[in-house]
Amino acid sequence: MKRIFLFLATNLAVLVLLSIVVRVLGLDALLAQQGIGADSLLVLAAVIGFGGALISLAMSKWSAKMVMGVRTIEHPQARDEAWLLAAVASHAERVGIRMPEVGIFDSPEMNAFATGARRNASLVAVSRGLLDGMSRWEAEAVLGHEITHVANGDMVTLALIQGVVNTFVIFLARAIGTVLDSALAGSRNHERRTGPGPFYFVIVIVLQVVLGIFASMIVMWFSRQREFRADAGGARLAGTESMISALERLQAAQGAGLPGQLAAFGIAGGAGGGLQRLFMSHPPIAERIAALRASDVLSARGQARR
Predict the structure, then answer these.
(1) In terms of pTM, does the model score above 0.85?
(2) Greater pLDDT, 125 or 266
(3) Parallel/antiparallel/unpaired status of strands 121-127 and 101-105
(4) C-alpha span between 248 and 53 (Å, rounded)
(5) How many CB atoms lie within 10 A of CB 81?
(6) In degrees rounded to 5, what are phi and psi of residue 170?
(7) From 101, 109, 140, 146, the catalytic residue
(8) Cβ distance 173 to 212 under 8 Å?
(9) What pLDDT does residue 194 have?
(10) In whole angstroms, what is the distance from residue 155 CA to residue 148 CA?
């Protein structure tokens, strides 16, 4: 219920903010001259922007299973599968969520991810490489990291942020495109016309690409912040040293990340620098380890003062 309220409130706030911007800049009058209603454009942008993000969220569990070939564990057939179910169940109980679906995907790389449209209907999956390459206490920390993502509702939050930036991109591309198209047409003749001119669609496509790049930077910044919070959650559930050790093992392996949209939900990632950093879904692992060590030191100092 809280997530539904958040979605509605966010959607309404975006529409109100864009309405104010349109009125202040006088874009509503310019759009009206072209036969385009500003309010109708706002609604269209919100429907498309949030609709795409929420459809992707709703399909996330199904698409993850298809793309990664996840085999869900209903009846464990091996000792490591039984351990995996028990570890996830323990973490889920401690953070107060329902038992997620648990699965394994066949990959030699060490990775894991969590996804799902709701915190009480999620999926946690780990690679075969992670189960074979990490100790049990390191793997428990990774599972704690993923369960924290679920408990924090990170999948929903990221979808809402994506919906907000999508709405801005769609609306601004069309609003600015209308103004530029009108100016280009006015430089050739002074006849009043309604509807978009020949340059409108080209301008809108270019603007959507450019604005979409900046929007991706915003979404990825939020994604990096939630990784720090998930690491802290993994440390609370399995111990700081276990979480640090798991991250160090991932850093040493530095294998390929998950494909496509799943990359933001995997535990591994964060390689690269320079401008590439702006588009990374994960902070560099060295920074994540440093954040955990700093948090551990502050916690120890706080306990000493007591």
Answers:
(1) no
(2) 125
(3) parallel
(4) 33
(5) 17
(6) -65, -45
(7) 146
(8) no
(9) 55
(10) 11
Q: Which residues contact 93 (CB under 8 A, 6 or more apart)?
A: none
Is 146 designated active site? yes
- Put residue 116 in one of left, alpha, beta given phi > 0 → left and psi -120 to 50 → alpha: left
**In the predicted structure, residue 61 carries a pLDDT above the cut 70:** yes
Cβ proximity of 111 and 127 under 8 Å? yes
Contact 224, 282 (CB under 8 A): yes
d(Cα 164, Cα 48) in Å, to the nearest integer?
11
Report pLDDT for 242. Answer: 95
Is the CB of residue 72 less than 8 Å from the CB of residue 100?
A: no
The per-residue pLDDT for range 157-207, each reduced to its tens digit, is: 888 888 888 888 888 888 888 778 777 766 555 454 555 666 778 888 888
Question: pLDDT at position 190, please?
Answer: 47
Distances (CA, A) of 124 to 56, 175, 288: 17, 41, 21
Q: Cα–Cα–Cα angle for 268, 274, 277, nearest 5°?
A: 35
Q: Residue 50: enclosing H or E segment and its boundaries?
A: helix 38-58
Percentage of residues of the chain with pLDDT beyond 70: 73
What sign does the dihedral 90-58-13-265 (CA atoms) show?
positive
